[in-house]
Design goal:
single chain, mainly beta, Methylamine Dehydrogenase, Chain H, Herpes Virus-1, 2 domains, 32 strands, globular
């Protein structure tokens, strides 16, 4: 359970402040305690632990509680010091943490799901605990009575959840790659819309209620920004990770998006610029540049006595092109392509050198990341994963918040 403490160098990368070890299995979730030098962790080893920083600089567990089933998700409400822990068996258990963070009292158990709980959120104003699970449903329960208020079922595992407290809108991502927007009522719900754009399962969601933006990360390695608040449903695609995007956090004050992927990648995206929306891919039976037929266009192949070609798409213009008309590769960050992608030859010529300037920074977390949480007010981030290690990072060198939010040196 050693911690590594580093001074803050003048760098433009995340600074590892502490490394917390001691779990016997995957760490499912880790949360920084606001205004405290502490971390709460939930693990597949069936433990809930509250780690407090000692005078020695090391983090030691002040609370070590063993559950009946592996812990899969967690939500913490700091003002009331209530913690909700989802388990592999589908139950959610509520605890109350003492003011000195040295004791945790059991409150009640919620029979929320029939299978693993994947995400939890707590709404104090309505006294609801809302959760998703691998039983393909979202449920909302009353924390006063402990009773189930409602359930809504999907065709796939419900994998992640975000909730707008003012409108009672719930955003639920699932393993089919779809995001469903629900309006939750006391005992029922209605489907507002469904969002489709990812080619892999939804792994993470983040809702910004101020700008009314929804961000989604997926196993297809991409992030999509959905403009829920207006502007004709505008969407922006961000591609820079090389593994599934496990966690995202949007910093509204500085218009930056922080994302983490399973291979340990940490990215900080500049969203305070006018980005271009990626085009829809066009369909055609022949190359839209040289008009050579694609291999399924039997009639044109017969008429022209030529072999059909394989279809590709230019990422910049969306046209269907053959390999000979798209021999070039280029990054195009303003459209979200941070690494080189296929573009047609004419689009390649139109891209200037300054257009290839990166609009994101990429860093190495040096461990498998399955969950991330940020304390934006202090510029701190915590990551955890299947390597059983919890890392605490100073993100102020890369998110540039110190002047805007008045961060003090730790």
């Amino acid at each position: 359970m050693a911690a590594e403490i580093h001074s803050r160098p003048q760098s433009s990368r995340p600074v590892l402040l502490s490394k917390v070890e001691g779990h016997q299995d995957v760490v499912s979730a880790a949360l920084l305690i606001p205004k405290e030098d502490g971390v709460i962790t939930a693990s597949e080893d069936r433990t809930i632990r509250v780690w407090l920083k000692r005078d020695s600089g090391q983090y030691w567990p002040s609370i070590y509680h063993t559950m009946s089933s592996p812990c899969s998700a967690m939500a913490y409400h700091h003002d009331s010091r209530r913690i909700f822990v989802g388990q592999d068996n589908g139950a959610i258990m509520e605890f109350h943490i003492s003011e000195d963070f040295n004791k945790m009292n059991f409150v009640k158990t919620y029979p929320a799901h029939q299978n693993r709980v994947s995400a939890i959120t707590f709404c104090l104003t309505s006294e609801w605990v809302i959760s998703t699970g691998h039983d393909k449903c979202v449920s909302w329960m009353c924390t006063r009575s402990g009773n189930m208020l409602g359930r809504h079922y999907f065709t796939s595992w419900a994998s992640c959840l975000q909730y707008d407290y003012e409108t009672r809108y719930a955003f639920v991502g699932d393993y089919s790659g779809q995001i469903t927007l629900l309006k939750l009522e006391q005992n029922t719900c209605s489907i507002i819309t469904t969002l489709k754009g990812h080619e892999g399962s939804i792994t993470s969601l983040w809702w910004d209620p101020v700008q009314r933006l929804l961000f989604s990360g997926a196993s297809d390695h991409s992030i999509i920004m959905w403009d829920i608040g207006g502007r004709k449903g505008r969407t922006l695609l961000l591609q820079g990770h090389h593994d599934k995007v496990q966690a995202i956090c949007y910093i509204q004050l500085t218009r930056q998006l922080v994302s983490c992927s399973a291979d340990g990648g940490i990215a900080v995206w500049n969203m305070d610029i006018s980005r271009e929306e990626a085009p829809q891919w066009l369909e055609s039976d022949s190359c839209q540049k040289c008009e050579q037929p694609f291999f399924w266009n039997i009639k044109q192949m017969w008429d022209t006595k030529t072999l059909g070609l394989r279809q590709h798409h230019c990422r910049k213009c969306g046209q269907a092109v053959c390999g000979k008309c798209s021999t070039k590769r280029s990054s195009y960050p303003i459209m979200g392509f941070e690494f080189q992608v296929r573009v047609c030859d004419s689009c390649f010529e139109s891209i200037k050198d300054e257009d290839r300037t990166s609009l994101a920074t990429f860093h190495e977390g040096k461990h498998n990341i399955s969950h991330m949480s940020m304390d934006v007010s202090r510029g701190l981030m915590v990551t955890c994963g299947s390597d059983r290690i919890v890392k605490i990072w100073d993100m102020t060198p890369v998110v540039g918040c110190s002047l805007a939010t008045g961060f003090s040196s730790r």
